[in-house]
Design goal:
By secondary structure, the chain is an alpha/beta fold. It has two domains: 275 residues, Rossmann fold; 252 residues, 3-Layer(aba) Sandwich (Rossmann fold), CATH 3.40.50. 35% of the residues lie in helices and 23% in strands. The protein has 19 helices and 25 strands. A nine-stranded mixed sheet has the order 13-12-14-15-25-24-23-20-21, sandwiched between helices. It has a seven-stranded parallel sheet with strand order 5-2-6-1-7-10-11, with helices on both faces. The protein has a three-stranded mixed sheet with strand order 16-17-22, with helices on one face. Strand 14, helix 15 and strand 15 form a beta-alpha-beta unit. Helix 1 packs across helix 9, helix 4 packs across helix 5 and helix 11 crosses helix 12. It is globular and about 75 Å long. The relative contact order is 0.11.
Length: 539
């Protein structure tokens, strides 16, 4: 049977529950356990797929095509593993399942209530996510006391007494504020948060104390006593130079000692040597390169979380600091690409939806092409390379994507009505289709061309597998014209254009997929690694 570790948060949000959960999972995985991860989101949206990146941050896509919370990305990056759609569920999904079952007569005429029906559905989903794993680390989104989180709190409380559950351990992440005028830290917010948990029926066995300053021994004892945990179970979580240092920091504080004791895991000695070496290269690298990151959601950098993290992974493996020069594509439209990209060693144009800032991205692509600057275009960044090339090299005036101009005389990027999904089944996409159900999502194969940059990046692999999140596709009707003029299709998936390169350019690659979704600290994505290496070697 599976053992469960539940991570809750108190006082306020954004304290790092996801990094805490990922760090604990990483240490247990490096101790030899099969570890699963689960993020529960109390919001009522079915998934974050239609939520604005500025509202919610990045939408992370799993291997099996689920649009999930960005914390699933943290789990994959830390544990070097692929998680499926069962690793994330929301209030919206829970209520949808229960209502659907009620409508079809599944409850035999019962009155449907939060307890037992909603809570029972939550427990079943948690157990399903735990199947096949020694340990499941569960992160509960939101903050203790949130009204929408109460059914989830009740569910994990009940699991303490579930005969199908071998053991449970509760970790509470909380804030220790420092009052500058008084010159002291305050434990009262944490005490109140723990009291709220106890009122619900949950007694945390460990406190992760987020603080800007180290906790004095006397303070830790006071906190332990007032929250009814052992002093060894009060773990400091100070601001770190990199999030990847957190597992090592936790290990130095013997975080596994009380977890092992409560869950009867035996003596744990995780092998973190390789991890520690990579962290040191992140903190003190020998080399440096500057990447011009052209995007449109720059108000919230979390919108590009996987991509920025992938650059850190590549830097660690190349012993280099990858400095990001954030460039707003709308600002390029005003000032020109050269004014904003001249000091960059390379150019990266990220994905996105909607017409805002598109012309600025096209100018950035032209700058990289003309000035022979290493270039990586991802998803929309690839599609716009076709538009730029069509306008400026093929001379096709008005060339565009039908996403931005339905009446374009040269639809370089178009919306195909039928495409094959992951399982080989035909799917229909039209302009009237609901946005949440018409994306090409999840992992697809890509056959690479011999001698291409993409094939070299993946160590000669004839077929690679990467994840997608987009509605529109490159139009094959223009392939012959593009290739005759020097833009070569070097990757295909079931007849769809996946990657393009430019003959004679030092390093220019556009990819339809999102390579950042498969990048991890210990195994960086091959195409992004090759891009960063080209950036380092740029003249």
């Amino acid at each position: 049977m599976t053992k469960y570790i539940f991570v809750t948060g108190g006082v306020l949000s954004s304290l790092g529950k996801g990094i805490t959960a990922a760090s604990v999972g990483t240490l247990l995985k490096h101790s030899g356990f099969d570890v699963g991860m689960l993020k529960i989101d109390p919001y009522i949206n079915v998934d974050p797929g239609t939520m604005s990146p500025l509202e919610h941050g990045e939408v992370f896509v799993t291997k099996d095509g689920a649009e999930t919370d960005l914390d699933i990305g943290n789990y994959e990056r830390f544990l070097d593993a692929s998680f499926l759609k069962s690793a994330n569920f929301t209030t919206g999904q829970v209520y949808s399942s229960v209502i659907e079952r009620e409508r079809s007569g599944g409850y035999l005429g019962q009155t449907i209530q939060v307890i037992p029906h909603i809570v029972g559905e939550i427990v079943n989903r948690i157990k399903k996510a735990g199947e096949g794993h020694d340990i499941l680390v569960v992160e509960l989104g939101g903050t203790v006391g949130d009204i929408e989180g109460l059914p989830f709190m009740e569910a994990i409380r009940q699991m303490k007494h579930d005969e199908e559950v071998e053991g449970t351990f509760f970790i509470h992440v909380t804030l220790i504020p420092y009052i500058k005028a008084a010159g002291e830290m305050k434990s009262k917010p944490t005490q109140h948060s723990v009291q709220e948990l106890r009122r619900i029926g949950i007694t945390p066995q460990m406190i992760i104390a987020r603080s800007e300053n180290a906790l004095p021994k006397t303070f830790k004892k006071k906190l332990a006593m007032s929250c009814d945990v052992h002093p060894d179970s009060v773990i400091e979580a100070l601001d770190a130079a990199t999030i990847y240092d957190i597992p090592v920091t936790f290990l130095r504080q013997n975080i596994l000692k009380s977890i092992s004791k409560e869950l009867e895991l035996g003596e744990l000695n995780p092998d973190m040597e390789e991890w520690d070496t990579l962290v040191k290269k992140i903190v003190q690298p020998k080399h440096k390169t500057v990447v011009g990151f052209v995007g449109k959601y720059l108000e919230l950098k979390e919108a590009y979380k996987s991509l920025t993290e992938s650059l850190i992974h590549c830097g660690a493996h190349l012993d280099a600091r990858v400095e990001i020069e954030w460039v707003d594509s709308e600002e390029i439209e005003e000032k020109g690409a050269e004014a904003l990209l001249a000091d960059c060693d390379s150019v990266l144009v990220a994905g996105g939806f909607g017409s805002r800032g598109i012309e600025g991205k096209i100018q950035a692509i032209e700058y990289a092409r003309v000035n022979r600057v290493p270039y990586l275009g991802i998803c929309l960044g690839m599609q716009l390379t076709l538009v730029e090339y069509a306008r400026n090299i093929l001379g096709l005036e008005g060339a565009n994507s039908v996403e931005f101009d339905e009446e374009t005389p040269h639809p370089m990027v178009y919306l195909i009505d039928n495409f094959l999904d992951q399982n080989g089944g035909a799917q229909l996409r039209t302009h009237e289709s609901p946005m949440g159900g018409t994306l090409r999502l999840g992992e697809y194969p890509c056959d690479t061309k011999d001698g291409s940059l993409i094939q070299k990046a993946y160590n000669g692999a004839k077929t690679i597998h990467e994840r997608h999140r987009h509605r529109y596709e490159a139009n094959p009707a223009y392939r012959a014209q593009l290739e005759k003029a020097g833009m070569i299709v070097t990757g295909e998936s079931n007849g769809l254009i996946e990657t393009v390169e430019i003959e004679g350019h030092p390093w220019f690659l556009g990819v339809q997929f999102h390579p950042e979704f498969t990048s991890r600290l210990q195994t960086p994505n091959a195409s992004i690694l090759a891009f960063v290496e080209a950036s380092l070697n740029a003249e």
